Structure formats: structure tokens, C-alpha cells
């Protein structure tokens, strides 16, 4: 069976466990299971409790979580032939795993066809997960390293209304100061940081991201400027809309939770709504977003579109997860490189387009992440200092 067919069947199994198969897809999966005895055996092994528990432990915190999610799968498996059941979305972390599901297919085929790669294990001790770190740029040109222990607590010469604590920079509303200057928070590659603005809104900044914001808000709006990726939990204020200004567009809210991905080198700006309502405004049009929907702005054409999405795929990073669903290897490694801070070299450019689904903890050892991908038998990684070579 060719790679494209393998990936398609893997996708059907993935959707089956998540309870998202259409009737047509259900029939296709059933036909595959009946096509050969080894197919049904593989399917049953993948949805067995032993297999599920073995592979899911690295992604969830407790055995109680594992048992709970296994019971959900067991209930669905028993009732599979009933078209009247309501498929339920499973646990946001465990059910999204491709390792015990789709990856199991790839591993099985690779081993049965004797194509599994027998390369030495990946060693990536020099490549470590990211950490809380940021640089604060002041209006007078000064820069403060917020990772420096000396910067913790009240920041010297900035007043008692601005202070750093651990991984968070917090501003208290101090409109009496009359200072309308802007601060800029820069999170480097391999970093993340949390910011609490003067109005009480919280911003979670991802790696390689920058936010420019006023020391305190005045006037009729609360406007900030973003480059990169951030998750916003905005305090409601009906008298002052909160505006995130981006390249060629803006997002306007009153009080809500949403994520924005606006890296300069990427062709699209994505706005994903978790709670509340937001307005996305561009020259080409206006869209009102509702929960579990995403607005996509194409920088080239200027088109603005909306679609329903699984929000965990786009904002899971804020909760300590890196989640990918049927995503190209190139996109996966690009996101991982921002967090783990490494460069990538491909010996064969066709490998960039191989799709994978993955759900890992952000602080997973990098070597373990690469092993998950290597277990498909389709590629191998080598590490040279901070360069990942894909073979």
C-alpha cells in the first residue's frame, strides 16, 4: 500500500476515535477492516485498552485520566454499528493522539514490508525546550531582560505600578501618572511570556512574537500592536473596545478569549475564537466570529474567510501543548523550531510534504519528539549542534 493510501486510512482511524466520521467515511473504514484479516487485527489492537494505555501515558497526567478516556473509546466501539448514537468529542489531549492510532498504522505497514529504518537513536541533548523569557523595550531606548533575577519584583525607575514576577510582567492601572508612553515586549525564539495589561487583560505571547502596548489605556479604545502569535483573555469594558492592530487588518473585541497567529513570513493571519465574540476587519471585508470559528486573512489576495475549527489545534500551545492534525512535516518542524530553537535541513524536499498528526507536551524532550516521527519508518533525523537534518 502506497504512502498516500496509508495516510488516508490513518486519517479515518483518527476521526473514528474522535467520533467525527461521516457515514461515507464509516463505510470506507468498515470496507478496509473487512478487506484483509490483518487489517481487522490491527484495528482491534489499536483500540484495545492495553495499547491505548501504553501509548497515552506520556500525554496525560494520571491513570484516572487514562481509564476515563479508555471507557469512552470502549463505549463507542461497542456501539459502532448503531447509526443513532451521538459521537462525542473525546478528551482534548488523549483523543487527539496519532501515535496510538494513525501512527500505529504507519508503524505496522513499515514493519510488515520490512522498511523500518534501523538508524541509531536520535541524540538531541543540546536542543532543549523553550522557557519563559522576554525583553522589555522602554520609550527611552533602554532594554530590560526579564529573565534576569535582578529584574524581578518592582522594576527600578518605572514606578510601583509595573513589576515582574516569574514568567509574568504585570501593569497596574495608574492613569494619574499621565505617562502615555508605549512599552514593547519581545519574546525570542525558544521563549514564551505572560503579560497582564493595565486594564487587567492577559496576553500570552508565543515564541518569536512582539507586542507593543501603552503603559495605561486612555481615550475611547484599548489598542495594542502584535507581530507573531498571542492568546488574549480580554477584560470586558463596553465603553472601550479592545483592538489588536495587525498588518493590513485589526481584531476588535469587548471582552473575550481568542488567539491570533500573525507571523510576518507566513501568508495568512489566523484569528481563532475560544469564547465570546470578535470582529475581524480588513479592507476586503468584515467578519463577526463566534466560538470555535476561525477567520483567515490571505495577505496576498486580501481575502477574508471564516471556518469552524478545532480550537485546540491553534491555541493548545498556551496550555502547554503542541498539537498538529494532518499537518505537513515542514509546518510541524517550523513550529517546533520556534519553541526548541533549532534550524532544519532537508536532504530530500519531498519529505516536507509528508503529513503527520501529533499531540505532545511543550516540555517533552526533543529527542523523544523526533523518535515519535521516526517510528513511522519514513524518515530519520540527525543532529549537528542546533541543526536538525531530515533524511
| Secondary-structure class | alpha+beta
CA distance, first residue to last residue: 22 Å
Largest sheet: 19 strands, mixed
| Tally of individual helices | 9
Description of the molecule:
With 391 residues, the chain is an alpha+beta fold. A hairpin with a 5-residue loop joins strand 18 and strand 19. Helices cover 25% and strands 32% of the residues. The strands form three sheets. The protein has a 19-stranded mixed sheet that branches. The chain has a three-stranded mixed sheet with strand order 21-24-23, with helices on one face. It starts with a helix and ends with a strand. The protein is globular.
Quick structural summary:
The protein has 391 residues and is an alpha+beta fold. Helix content is 25%, strand content 32%. It contains nine helices and 24 strands.
Main features:
single chain, 391 residues, alpha+beta, 19-stranded mixed beta sheet, three-stranded mixed beta sheet, 9 helices, 24 strands, 32% strand, globular
